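Design request, tokens follow.
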């Protein structure tokens, strides 16, 4: 499947939850943009975009099962869920397992290895910061300690005007 088809499949899966749909579209847009600006190879770019589209796939299940979508629950439930979700997309086993790894680690800010992981974290942060109105201190701290890409740094500062 192409990215557009996986995006359509994920929107359909989100079943009218506009907050979830808007969130994933925003995270995908920033991830795609940062990935292209940083010159990722096509394979890494593809895996990054699929991970961005599906990263919060476990949110509805976690709200139902645990009463909240706490990051750790999402990571535990997300990996198997996304593996199943992507099984009919024609993606390779390696691609699916990398996406599952990223979905299963997208709230883990230690030991970030790989540009796909790094950019997913940056894109999700930009959207969460704007949706939840994070403080200037929080944003500065994130830019200083976590952000690695030039375009991620500039976009975070532009969006949060700091
Ligand atoms: Fe997210």
């Amino acid at each position: 499947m192409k990215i557009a088809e996986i995006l359509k499949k994920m929107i359909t899966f989100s079943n009218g939850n506009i907050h979830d749909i808007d969130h994933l579209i925003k995270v995908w847009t920033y991830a795609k943009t940062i990935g292209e600006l940083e010159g990722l190879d096509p394979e890494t770019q593809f895996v990054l975009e699929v991970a961005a589209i599906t990263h919060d796939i476990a949110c509805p299940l976690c709200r139902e099962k645990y009463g909240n979508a706490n990051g750790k629950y999402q990571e535990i439930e997300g990996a198997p869920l996304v593996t199943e979700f992507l099984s009919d997309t024609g993606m390779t086993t390696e691609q699916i397992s990398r996406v599952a790894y990223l979905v299963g680690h997208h709230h883990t800010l230690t030991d970030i290895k790989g540009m796909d992981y790094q950019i997913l974290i940056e894109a999700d942060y930009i959207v969460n910061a704007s949706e939840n109105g994070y403080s200037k201190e929080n944003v500065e701290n994130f830019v200083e300690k976590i952000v690695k890409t030039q375009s991620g740094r500039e976009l975070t500062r532009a969006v949060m005007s700091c």
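Comment from the thread starter after seeing the answer: thanks! The pocket of fe (ii) ion is lined by residues 23, 27, 55-56, 124 (CB under 6 Å).
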